[in-house]
Amino acid sequence: xxxxxxxxxxxxxxxxxxxxxxxxxxxxxxxxxxxxxxxxxxxxxxxxxxxxxxxxxxxxxxxxxxxxxxxxx
Length: 73
Prior knowledge:
By secondary structure, the chain is mainly alpha-helical. The chain has one domain (about 10-60). It has helices at about 15-25, 25-40, 40-60. The longest helix is centred in the last third of the chain and has 18 residues, at about 40-60.
């Protein structure tokens, strides 16, 4: 069983099933990307998508100790 949530950018865009799952999990972001594709050239959109995917990798910081624990303040 997977214990993580996939990013919008982690789905395989060439797979109809994965695109459908991605669009169900991220409906607003999917609509945003549809609008972008209509406004940008294909080359511009692909460049934007690659940049967003790369930026998203830096936001996802893996937890080296995935066990549940309380945070004390």
